[in-house]
């Protein structure tokens, strides 16, 4: 069987690149002269993807402020963002068979090390290992699919790490966020009773994802742990999954979390330094010195292809939806980051790379 012909691609492409550390509006520019990645050849395991949509990360601003703008190794330019959807335009012979054919619809992701080296995905074409792409069912649109890997893989790892079982009770904090929304849906697929915490205006949305009960944190303020104790103390939760990172929720957890239960935290809403201090205290401070007598688990979760396959299958079966707050054209990226910065986005903020 003859090898597929090498596609004819434009020599350059559009991509957003960073010139220095700082806020997006001060550091990013849309370039139109970035060399298009070379097509994978021979026994390469890479795939070259024409990008359709890119989902922005809530912590992008953190990376833009932290990482050097021009890596010592890797790409000569620094392109932001991690997860996207698109179509395969070329693949090496050792790429996974499911994503090897030209025209295959995929979701894909860059790794944190890849991003640190400058190989982000806010570009018209992206080349990466085929193990970082998964096939996308025809029934799922590119917009929703672009934001499923980061939040979805984290949600699946939360369930695995906790060991939560059918019939148990879980309290989800940050239930209206990108991870919380996917987490609720995947918990309900497993037959788990879910109580979601978010702001009042998001109640209908959170219940629509399957939450059995809803708690408006704004209605209780600093007395939220007291309310949870009074409401759920007689029937405490097996696990608390904190997608926001609220220390008070863990501090008051003996009132509404079973002694053998655990709080799993993936959020840093209170800031990196405060979260780090809380992490050390929660993990190592014994109860006789004022520590909380409950297990505390904190972790980060890089996407994995195996999980991406599971997630896209659930989407294709209509069992999982990724909420999308808004879609911006490629040229309007800076406005989209401003939307993310408000922390009021009700779902993913997505960039349409193919829009002029």
From TrEMBL:
Residues 22-351 form the Enoyl reductase (ER) domain. This is Secondary metabolism biosynthetic enzyme. PANTHER family: ALCOHOL DEHYDROGENASE RELATED, RETICULON-4-INTERACTING PROTEIN 1, MITOCHONDRIAL. It comes from Sporothrix stenoceras. It holds the Pfam family ADH_N. CDD domains: MDR1.
